[in-house]
Amino acid sequence: GAGVSQSPSNKVTEKGKDVELRCDPISGHTALYWYRQSLGQGLEFLIYFQGNSAPDKSGLPSDRFSAERTGGSVSTLTIQRTQQEDSAVYLCASSLSPGLRSDGYTFGSGTRLTVV
Amino acid sequence: DAKTTQPTSMDCAEGRAANLPCNHSTISGNEYVYWYRQIHSQGPQYIIHGLKNNETNEMASLIITEDRKSSTLILPHATLRDTAVYYCIALSGNTPLVFGKGTRLSVIA
Predict the structure, then answer these.
(1) Cis link prior to A55 (omega < 30° from 0)?
(2) Cβ-defined contact of B46 to A104 (cutoff 8 Å)
(3) pLDDT by residue (tens digit) across B13-64?
(4) Which residue in A19, A47, B57, B58 is deepest, having the highest Cβ count within 10 Å?
(5) Which residues contact A80 (CB under 8 A, 6 or more apart)?
(6) Which of B47, B49, B96 sits opposite A56 (nearest CB)?
(7) Do residue B100 and residue A45 have CB atoms under 8 angstroms apart?
(8) Are A81 and A16 in contact (CB under 8 A)?
(9) B34 vs A104: CB contact, 8 Å cut-off?
(10) For chain B, what is the radius of gyration of the CA atoms?
(11) Of residues A79, A23, A104, A77, the one with CA closest to residue B87
(12) Cα–Cα distance for residue pair B55/B35, rounded to 1 Å
């Protein structure tokens, strides 16, 4: 597609439930990133996928968070047993290749998650 | 990756040039300087990046000092739609972008 697509755009869930957030990167982009942004806060790096390499999970805040990327394209971020502090906008980005630096990241519009 | 320092906020009159400074005094030789901006309720948007030469594209110009310890992003004719938080990031290799607090630019009519 023309841009990075994220779904759903909004999600309200009850505390304790699991949620899945989806990201469709730009076709051909080998690198994919997840960030989150809590209200009034900066962007917090969560996880990074590059090709077939093992993902960089160093930003995941707890073991309730996991992500996968199937076939080098679509990625799903899963949050288990959601807590109120998980409420944030979850942003996905993709880039052609981090090593080339010939372009930047293209971000999606995000999924606004509200845990009630 | 080198730490960057930016002013918390700046104002600019509509139609004037907006000059956003960034200090990166610990930058290493292989680190690029990247600029992104985030308009309210949107995902960040790539603006420009450079290593040591000045760069210009349709959005902005990037001026990097000769010692590479600081840089300035220039929006030549700021409009109200340029109101956003602007992030300066120094980065090398394959590590992901790490966003700081940025500069909140307000363009005033």
Answers:
(1) no
(2) yes
(3) 999 999 999 999 999 888 999 999 999 888 999 999 999 999 999 999 999 9
(4) A47
(5) A18, A64, A65, A66
(6) B96
(7) no
(8) yes
(9) yes
(10) 13
(11) A104
(12) 12
Work out the average pLDDT over A59-72.
93
Is residue A71 helix, strand or coil?
A: helix
> What does DSSP assign to residue A56?
B
Contact residues on chain B for A59, CB-CB shorter than 8 A = 96
Check CB contact of A54 with chain B, cutoff 8 Å: no
Where residue A111 falls among pLDDT bands split at 50, 70, 90? very high
Rounded to whole angstroms, how far apart are CA atoms B43 and A93? 9
Residue pLDDT, tens place only, A71-96: 879 999 999 999 999 999 999 999 88
Q: Give how far Cα B19 sits from Cα of A108, B10, B55, B80, Å.
A: 27, 9, 14, 15
Q: Contact at 8 Å (CB) between A72 and A18? A: no
Residue A99: band (very low, low, confident or very high) from pLDDT cuts 50, 70, 90:
low
